[in-house]
Amino acid sequence: MTYPGPEGQWQSQQGQPYQPQQGYQPQQPQYGYDPAQSGYYQQPSGAYPVQQPEPPRRSRKGLVIGLVVALVVLLGGGGTWFALSQSGGGADTPREAAMNLATSIGNGDVVGMLSTLAPAEAALFTDPVEEAVAELKRLQILQPNADPKALSGVQIKTENLTFDDAAAQQVNDHLTITKLTGGTITINADLTKVPFAKDFLDATMRGRQEQNQTETIDIAEHVRETGEPIRIATVQVDGSWYPSMLYTIADYGLLEEKKPWPAQGIPANGAASSNDAVKELAQAVLDADIRRVIELLPPDEMAVLHDVGPAILEEAGRAEPIGGKILDLTTTSSSVSGGTRATLASLEVESPDGDRFSIRKDGDCYSATAQGRTERICADQLPALFEQNAGRRGILPPEVVQVVQSLATGVFKQGIGVITTEVEGKHYVSPIRSLTEQGMTVLRSLKPEDIKALMNLAR
């Protein structure tokens, strides 16, 4: 197994338990990317039958795999905790790393917890935290004094964790899969401890019998049932090692498909500008050119897709192109945390049949032209159009009309945007940052009275 440090000073004895002495409270923000809900796995729900076909209690694996997301911010190779210092660099020693992480854990520091990941990966989740919390406060969903560095609500405690060091899989010079074989993980969730505003908490908790839920997972029992340890991917960046959520998810995806990690990845090949990156990616999607799509993803924060890219290509086979040619695509650029927001200003596409379609943004209105006809629609027209299409006026509740009006106005004014990043002079499209930005666009569009209207409607 690869160890992050000279002379093997981070190594642990095989099978020796690693026993952290305190639980932590990593309440994850409710937006952005959630690896536990990706296409690889689905959280099981409902009761399990008494008798189950082989393998036994297979569905329980999904629950355990979901816990990997929590584990990777706790654990590193060989049973050692990894952490970033507050300055953003890797820890110099295991003790310093454990102390940095323990400080974040004890404070319920969401930003500090997520910062234990590989730097570029951590930034995907930490960059939007401040703005998201500010918007949730403005909408009166969170209390005015809510602090992103001291959120609570989910407590996770690990005990007697053991790794099989001899079974660790060194995939390449920067990726090692560690194997967790023993110990327990206890999760306690209590939404009443999250600093929600009182009105919001009352509305969401109404009618719920249990507000506090606890689940304990015995890792050794899971290993006996499935015949497999829990796999946690660790990556090396600039000489230091970090646990990785994205690589862990990809590793389980390959395992599920019974495919090995590719021997070689797909190199990054960015565009000359932010606008070009968006245009080239859109054309690659129309052409079903998956290789080009992967080339245009950031080589740092999306390194996992470059490494796993050949397996994706093999699985996709010969994808059927959507067809069409982008004749023109223009965006307006604005700086955002971690990158550039490229907002669509105009687009002209030619179909395989030679027909042309174009769309142009003008303030909070959009104009679309096709087959010689131009239609213009503005944000303030959408609620009436929804009601008209529903068959009769007044079919939508006033609360819904109000929220639709706010959303339409906000989205039309802000525009449809994706986030691009620049690495070594080349520009790339960031899928996770773009997804997060869509969520932020919705939050910015809403007003406090919209949230109250929805809560009243729910009553």
UniProtKB/TrEMBL annotation:
It comes from the Bacteria. Residues 1-56 are annotated as: Disordered. The chain crosses the membrane at residues 63-84. Keywords: Cell projection, Cilium, Flagellum, Membrane, Transmembrane, Transmembrane helix. Residues 1-37 have a biased composition (Low complexity). This is Flagellar basal body protein FliL.
